[in-house]
Every structure is written in structure tokens, then in C-alpha cells.
Design goal:
CATH superfamily of chain A: Hotdog Thioesterase
Order of helices and strands of chain A: HHEEHEEEEHE
Low-confidence stretches of chain A: 1-10
Largest interface: A-B, 100 and 100 residues
Helix content of chain A: 25-40%
CATH architecture of chain A: Roll
Strand order of the largest sheet of chain A: 3-6-5-4-2-1-7
Number of strands of chain A: 7
Shape of chain A: flat
Largest sheet of chain A: 7 strands, mixed
CATH class of chain A: Alpha Beta
Distance between the termini of chain A: 40 Å
Structural class of chain A: alpha+beta
Radius of gyration of chain A: 19 Å
Oligomer: homodimer
Number of domains of chain A: 1
Strand content of chain A: 15-25%
Mean pLDDT of chain A: 91
CATH topology of chain A: Thiol Ester Dehydrase, Chain A
Number of helices of chain A: 4
Chain lengths: 239, 239
């Protein structure tokens, strides 16, 4: 096994490694969705499990500690690749890909059985997970990075799987280190009839808390890298 | 490829298929965590992706429609195997395994890099996702199944990855079709110092809404199976 130093030289992360990591995540997402919907029998499912374990063997070995940011993260450009909502290399994330226009952050995604709660509908907690990210990224791209202090959601109607959904966030209010961000989930073809309405309060921790929470966080070169800037939003593109 | 009829005969789901599906999910979880922390290079990651695609080929073919419940679900015993929080066969779920004691539903789990938000901490939206399930299952095991109408969370402190966490839910109040459920996330060794406090309102839809939402949902035999009973909690065991 070779190892990768990613952004050690301070340049952009290794493009080949990023492409491979994104491809692995895409394959994982497809397999997770397939595993929840296949009508294959036990022998076929068992043989799929065996191949997944073989895949794991290919990348076993040294692991980065949690305090060391992934070399593929590119905070200057706002990319956290393993973010479980928007990370391009996360097998859990759909992933949501955000764009920004006139201060509003939005994403369109169609979700499958892997994200199901009540039969045929999105899990209510998945709506909350996705909205926390939408609202947090909305804060960050407006220069208001903070950690979630309060999140609340009103569910107006069930959110269907298998249809394009639109996720949106916008700034309601800012007071010092605190921002209040609102947002919604709607069908993409009926964006102004929200199925879920969300509101979040995000707070930039005071310097002493920031040091306590993230004092040991470094990039792969060992340079201290606490979060706290717009780059911690995940690759929000201008629309 | 053979196909599986699962609970078609009305009996318990196929034990061999269930074991294989749970094994596949366990392998997927391990690989997802590994993919976020490995220091392997591009060639190894690419070869892992190739093996995952081969795994998918093993279970490709006919898929159940979303309106047909998975044959592995056993609603009489409260098992929804692909639930993205507590499903034993979900590659996304940690999974949380709930126990019930004196009306309180709880689970203990240690989470890894796949669920990360700010560096070294659980994603705030993941706290919300997990609590929605804890609160919803608390409602259901108390005979109060309902869909999430409102969810709110107060974040008292960051939730660390890599340490055992305790998730809890209890009934606060019930009024007709509506229940108010509270809960918390804490370190397992300090369960009474909540890091996240949550409160959810769950509402059992009126019969006409239940018909509109779930009128086409069937089990694998074609029998109509709307949700709406304690069995829709996910395999909560008595402690």
C-alpha cells in the first residue's frame, strides 16, 4: 500500500486521489440504495458482502487521527469531502451540492430508499440533518460561520422519495457572533409550498471555547487548523 | 440471480437473507468509515471502488417498488431493517439499538468520522437525525405512533466522536392523536449532563390523511400495510 500526503505541500489536494475517493463514494451510495431495494437472494447478498470486505482490505492500514483534517479537504475553496450531507467523497451523503444566488443557498436532490422513514417518504430526521447543513452553510457563505446552537423544524407535509426536492436557506438576522438562518424543503416544481420549514441559530464560539474544542486540530502538515471561516461551508458555488 | 419472497407466506422473514443483508450493511459501514480515514493512495482507493461496483453487480436486477415494504421488515416484531438510524441492514445507520426500561427508550453508540460535522465532533444534523428516531420510537413503543410534526433541539455542547454516547427519549405529554416526546444525547459516562436536548411533537395522521399518504403501501404479498402501530418502532427491546 502506498500512502498519500495530499495537501502537504500546501497546494491543491491530489486530483487523482480526489477522483478515486469520489468514485468510491459514488459506488458506495449506489450499493447502499441497491441493498435496500434488491430482490436478490441470500447467496447473492452474501457474495456482495464478501466483495465489500475485499474492497476494505485494499485501503486498510494506517488511518489519520480524527484531529488531523483529511488531506483532500480544501478549506480555502470550501471543500470538506467527507461531510455526511454535502461531501463528494462521503458514502452517506446524497450528496447535496449547494449553489448560492442573491444570498440564498440552495440544492436540488432526489432521494431514494436509503433515506426512508415512513414508507415512501423521507425520514423526518433526514430532513433535519439536511437542513442543519443547508442553514449552516448559508451562515458560513455569508461570513457568519458558527456551530448549531438551536435547530427547529415544522413539518407541513410528508416529503416524497424519488422526486426532485429543493433545499433552501437564507439569513434572517445576525447579532454579533450569532446568526439566525431560515430555510425550507419543497418539491423542486413547487418551491414556494414548503413541506418542511426550518430555523437555526448558529453561534461562532468565543476564542477560549474555539481553543478548547479545536485546539488539537491540524492539517496533514501539522499546521493548526481550527474551523471558523467561510471556507468551512462545503463548496458552495455561486449560481 | 435467484429472488427472494421473504415473508410471502406470512411467516417470519427469511433468516438467511436477513443475516446476509445485515452482514452486507456491516461491511458497508466499515468501508465508509475506512474511506474517510484511510491514508491509502489513489490506486488503492480506485481498486476498492471497482470491487464495490462488482458487489453491486451481484445484487443488480429486479428491485422492489418503494410502495412495497421490504420482505425483511417484520412489523409485528417492530423491525424496519433499512431504517437509516436503527436499521440493522442499513449501511447508513450506525445502527442505534434501542432498549426500553420504565417508559424510557435508550441506545448507546460510539460514532466515527463518517458522521462528523465540525472537526472531531458529531454533525449537528446527525444529532437531529438520531433524536428524531429516538423520540419517534419512544412515541411508538408507548402506543403513540405518529409522524414528526415539530422537532427542536438545543445544543449545549459539542458531541465528541469516538466516545460512547447515550441517546434517550421519554414521553412528556399526550393529547389525543398528538404526543410530545423529550430526549437527550449525553456521554454514556455522564448521562445526566445533556450535550443535546430535544423535543418532538408526533401526530398520528387522521384516517383520510393516512389513506392519502399510505394507501398504496403493501407488503410483498400485496396486502395493504399502512404504518400506524407500535410495531413501527424499530425493534425496541425491553431492557
Amino acid at each position: 500500500m502506498t500512502t498519500n500526503d495530499g495537501g502537504l505541500d500546501g497546494g491543491a489536494p491530489d486530483a487523482g486521489l480526489l477522483a478515486a475517493a469520489e468514485d468510491l463514494a459514488a459506488a458506495l451510495r449506489e450499493l447502499i440504495e441497491l441493498s435496500a431495494t434488491t430482490t436478490a437472494g441470500a447467496a447473492e447478498v452474501a457474495s456482495a458482502a464478501e466483495l465489500v470486505r475485499s474492497a476494505a482490505e485494499r485501503i486498510e492500514g494506517p488511518r489519520r487521527p480524527l484531529t488531523q483534517l483529511p488531506p483532500l479537504d480544501d478549506r480555502a475553496r470550501g471543500r470538506r469531502v467527507f461531510n455526511p450531507v454535502s461531501g463528494s467523497a462521503s458514502g452517506i451523503a446524497p450528496p447535496l451540492r449547494f449553489v448560492r444566488e442573491d444570498g440564498v443557498v440552495s440544492a436540488v436532490a432526489t432521494l431514494g430508499a436509503a433515506y426512508e422513514g415512513p414508507p415512501t417518504f423521507l425520514h423526518g430526521g433526514m430532513s433535519a440533518l439536511f437542513m442543519d447543513q443547508v442553514l449552516g452553510d448559508t451562515a458560513a457563505v455569508n461570513g457568519l460561520w458558527g456551530m448549531t446552537a438551536h435547530l427547529e423544524l415544522d413539518y407541513r407535509g410528508p416529503v416524497p422519495l424519488g422526486r426532485p426536492l429543493r433545499f433552501r436557506g437564507w439569513v434572517e438576522e445576525t447579532v454579533g457572533r450569532k446568526s439566525v438562518i431560515a430555510g425550507s424543503i419543497a418539491l423542486d416544481d413547487a418551491p414556494d409550498r414548503p413541506l418542511v420549514e426550518a430555523r437555526g441559530v448558529f453561534v461562532m464560539p468565543r476564542p477560549e471555547k474555539l481553543a478548547a474544542y479545536f485546539g488539537s486540530v491540524t492539517d496533514v502538515s501539522g499546521t493548526h487548523r481550527p474551523p471558523g471561516n467561510a471556507g468551512d461551508a462545503n463548496a458552495v458555488e455561486r449560481g
